[in-house]
Amino acid sequence: MTGRYWRSLSFRIALLYAVALGLSMAFVAASYFVIAVLIPSDEVRNRVAQETRLLSQIYVVDGEEALVTALEERRARTDERRAFDALIAADGRAITANVPSWPTRIQNDWYSIEADIYREGGEDDFSALSRDHLFDDGVRLIVGRDVEDLEDREEIVRQAMPALLILTVVFGLAGGAFMSRTIGKRLEAITATARRVTEGDLGGRVATRGKGDDFDQLAVTLNRMLERNQELFETVRRVSDNVAHELRTPLARLTARLEAIRTKFPAGNDDFDEIDSALEESARLQAIFNALLRIARIEGGRHGANFRKVDLGQIAADCVELYAPVALDRGITFEVSSGNAVLPEGDPDLLFQALSNVLDNALKYTPVGGRITVGTESGGWTVSDSGPGVDEQDLKRLTERFFRSNSVRAIAGDGLGLSLAAAILQLHSGSLSFRNSPDGFVVSMSFQT
User: Fold this and answer.
1) How far apart are CA 96 and CA 225, in angstroms?
2) pLDDT, tens digit, for every residue of 200-247?
3) Are 438 and 315 in a shared domain?
4) How many domains does the chain fold into?
């Protein structure tokens, strides 16, 4: 299941869309965190560090009273970030401070002090980002600045980030699924049309929605190509039909003339034999023209098919009965496996012709004393023979008109039998397939029942 979805372009686009949206949201949140929290926090640290150096220098140079005065002045100055500090004697006594409490032990790194201020029954929340400085005489100086807003932002980002990412992925997948479904439907319409054309419906066209989008433009281009291909195919088919049809009449007259001339010579005469050979070639040409015309009529939908319920097993039995004398003369054994197989709609005469052509081929290429097996199942027929088989590279070309594999060219044939069988099966929404087997060659004639 996963492999099938992953092979779908629309599914991969939807997944990539969700991932890209999630990464974009994560990047935006990270950028906000850096700009709104990290950079301002670094600025506060730099400022507090600078103030600590200046205040410690006042204590060293001018003494404790001067430092207390400097701290009080620092607190009194109006600033965006409120100043906090504490000067603690070596015995732990607070010399001066505007924070309610502080760690008893000296901290070696940055830390926060809750510096809330209570007045008139209310409370102002402050958090001082602070740093310690210990003088040689044991006096401790704590210097800080309010970063309550920065900590609030950091907490919001940390708490909201997981939920935000989850919602982003969910909405991304939902949007991707909608996009995937929309694209998938348009692609399915193109694929369905291509499949119809491949199966022989040259009139199939891709539907457009009139929106003028990329898919409509693609559909218009494909439809133009299909129309052009249909025109070319119809032209070629008309030419071939006309050629075959026009040649039938002079060929029939030629045959009649040869038959009239043959009557003027006694049987066994050399001239009689030559004319008889010419008549055989003429009959072969007539058979070829008739086959070509029949294939053209079937492929063009011009054959008057008589569709009704068909017993495939009975047709197989009739075909085997027809070819049984030929098989007996060549010492070939027929094995019949007939199951209960009924085609709801089919032309029994055409189906008989298709199976007859396949059996005729099997009889041609099966050696004397060989075996042919005809099997009937619910899906169609299978004809297996003990012949030499066909070169693997030629299997896909066996239904081409006049094509004959190099492995069987020495045996007489015109290369149209399987072409006609394929056209008949296509008319019945069926398929003709071939494969070599360890025992010979297998032809499968399948129907959609």
Assistant:
1) 91
2) 677 778 888 777 777 788 888 888 888 887 777 777 667 666 666 667
3) yes
4) 3
